[in-house]
């Protein structure tokens, strides 16, 4: 958790997730890593899943130390059903159950639609949207057994439309739809499904590579960029019993950014791209 965001341990009791097992795709870096760490600090054990095992293993070791819990790394490409099935089987072999699922794996880059290759569009949709579908399908039987909970990570750019991001926006809009569909379909099994749509969060890949330089804290109603902890505390809340009657909701954690900022993402050289 970063410096000035609120420590969830000051708000929620320490052991609220004791005995719970989290599986998080994209849990080795950025927002999902911080969410995983926060959930482990509250007593859960975690399995983080991503493509590059070296980086993932290092992240798992660091997180185990910093959060004082057990974090286990499993290599998998969420685009491949066979990888996902194997990762879930490894998680079950290690911990015996899965209570929480975070679908966070994402890939993105700024590019004009007419310059995107067919494969580029397919790649982003496969990682973000199909990856969410694949992992959820593989984890669902275990979530049914534990009456667990899902958080799908999306974005806000699809709410109004943003140039150079149609591939990612299409995928994220699909993820938001899945949050609502699954909430209705899995609710009778005792599974809650919610989403988190982060805005500009400082020190993340998305912020570095995707947000226009014109976006400043002054363009955001709350007058600051977000911090990792701002997102993590929403994750802890949504998995906690404080959110027991909340399902089908995507929580926007952006300081009000999307309400005021859309076309600010035009780059200076748009016409030449
Ligand atoms: N602009 C346009 N097209 C791009 C691109 C860019 N910046 N980056 C990748 N592509 C295209 C590739 O050219 C390729 O299409 P092609 O086969 O027609 O040439 C296609 O997307 C797949 O790219 P590739 O790098 O081969 O796929 P990958 O599966 O190894 O990785 C990403 C896909 C999205 C993860 C990778 O592009 C990447 O590393 N992105 C930046 C990191 C990131 O997304 N972080 C998380 C989100 S902020």
TrEMBL record:
UniProt catalytic activity: a (2E,4Z)-dienoyl-CoA + NADPH + H(+) = a 4,5-saturated-(3E)-enoyl-CoA + NADP(+); a (2E,4E)-dienoyl-CoA + NADPH + H(+) = a 4,5-saturated-(3E)-enoyl-CoA + NADP(+)
Keyword list, A-Z: NADP, Oxidoreductase
Pfam families for the chain: adh_short_C2
GO BP, sorted A to Z: fatty acid catabolic process
Coiled coil start-end: none
Organism in which the protein naturally occurs: Phascolomyces articulosus
The protein's name in its UniProt record: 2,4-dienoyl-CoA reductase [(3E)-enoyl-CoA-producing]
Enzyme Commission designation: 1.3.1.124
Keyword field contains Oxidoreductase: yes
Any one of the GO CC terms: peroxisome
Molecular function via GO: 2,4-dienoyl-CoA reductase (NADPH) activity
Transcription is among the record's keywords: no
Top-level taxon in the UniProt lineage: Eukaryota
